[in-house]
Amino acid sequence: MGSDETHTAFFYATLMAPEVFFTVCYRSATQDVAVLKSLHDFHPAILPGYSRRRVKYADYPGITADADHEVRGMYVTGLTAANMYKLDQFEGDEYVRETVKVRLLPKPGGSKGQEGESNGKAEDEVVETEVYVYKDPAHLEDREWDFEEFRTQRMKLWTREDYGFEDTDHFAPKEVEDEAVAAAV
Known about the structure:
Pfam families: GGACT. The protein is an alpha+beta fold.
């Protein structure tokens, strides 16, 4: 695998939030945020044949094969071998990386070009990519994981503050911040 080769991945959980993605893939605060943002495209997508459930006692979910369901998430391009290494480390041994096909959705507020394309990818185009699948379904709850609940209540604990996402104003409630401080002591 050459160092210039790029990868793609489908994220369905915490990594759908650019703030979390950039924290995992680019830990150094010395990097230029605008340059980092220009390296990757986040495109809404659907993964058929899987369901997403909360992992017991955790802030994040896992997906498992389920022919009757589909999972909404983000198809991300421009991933380097170094990014994939960091993502593998982040996901740990609870997940296995698998190759799947996702269907691209229209980008919200995206400008469409010719032939129904949005930012270089056609809506409803099916693309092959990689996804992290949860290994132990027995550790999943019976309920769907809620991204908005994560964004408003837990995401602040998963990100760096120096990435400059000015369009996000999601802060953890005081009791969550107190919990994080107590855990750090």
